[in-house]
Amino acid sequence: MKETSYIVNAFVGKSSGFLGSPACVVLLHERIPDTQMLAIAAKNGLPETAFLLKEEVTASVVSERSGHSVKKSGRYSLRWFTPDIEMDLCGHATLASAYVVYEILGEKEAIFDTCEGEIKVARCPAERGSDSSGGGSGSGGSSSGDFMYVLDFPSRPAKPAKLPENIYNALNIKPKEVYLSRDYLLLYDDEAQIRNIIIDRAEFDKINLDPGGIAVTSSEIYSGKKSICAGVKNCGDATFDFVSRFFTPQATILEDPVTGSAHCTLVPFWAERLSKNKLHAAQLSERGGELFCELKDGRVLIGGYARLTCGVH
Predict the structure, then answer these.
(1) Strand, helix or coil at 103?
(2) pLDDT at residue 65 is higher than 80
(3) pLDDT, position 146
(4) Domain of 129?
(5) What is this structure's pTM?
(6) Do 32 and 142 lie in a common domain?
(7) Eight-class DSSP state of 128
(8) Catalytic machinery residues
(9) I need a labelling partner for 216 at 20 to 30 A (CA). Which of 126, 169, 222, 241 fits?
């Protein structure tokens, strides 16, 4: 199989030193079997591997010179695989794919055809006041620091739910409220609890939530405090509206570094409680991630920065 791959860190920090989540973006020249894609993702061992296949789109106009339909490119089919399964939606691998489409392939737009439908990613100027030098602590790669990539994702509001016993028993700190969409959303009192959550893996892995997981979340603002992620590695003095972590039972990678798709639920949840549609979020994994979110017209816009780690031909 002829392929070119790029490893891109997505949702890297700009107002913080967060390292983001790594994704491998594989450029396909022809369709390959699902089993082969899963095998490649398993071999990569990264949280997600994205597979891009360029599509030729026939325009509705006919060339005056040739009389033939004109083919335009710029659309890609996109599929996401963890080392274990194919995902229904993935934020950080979509952002990484958009980085490759814009910065490496030189496309003017990024439109992806996925199992979730058409997904567009905009390339926007960096957030005012953020560090756009392309450096950052521990960057480990080159960056297109002058641009943010904004995912146009579905909104997936959660409803109150009962937590399965295996998940409840696996948590060293119990949540105050439980909600469910694709993922379970567990509400906690403060950031300290989010940082200190420990999962009993043996108990946790007794249940399968494919393709979902559990997002644990809190907001110091909601609790009447100011969120500065005190004591969190790489966080610096950045302030956030809410924080989260994300865990998946029976997965090769227990804790996801940054989970863009979980914010399809987290954003409408916090937008209602904080009475604001624009939200600055942090994912407090060991690597950490920074997300600029907005609930708009029934959709969730998720912005983030990316950094190229390496390319393999």
Answers:
(1) helix
(2) no
(3) 77
(4) 3-61+68-154
(5) 0.88
(6) yes
(7) T
(8) 48
(9) 126
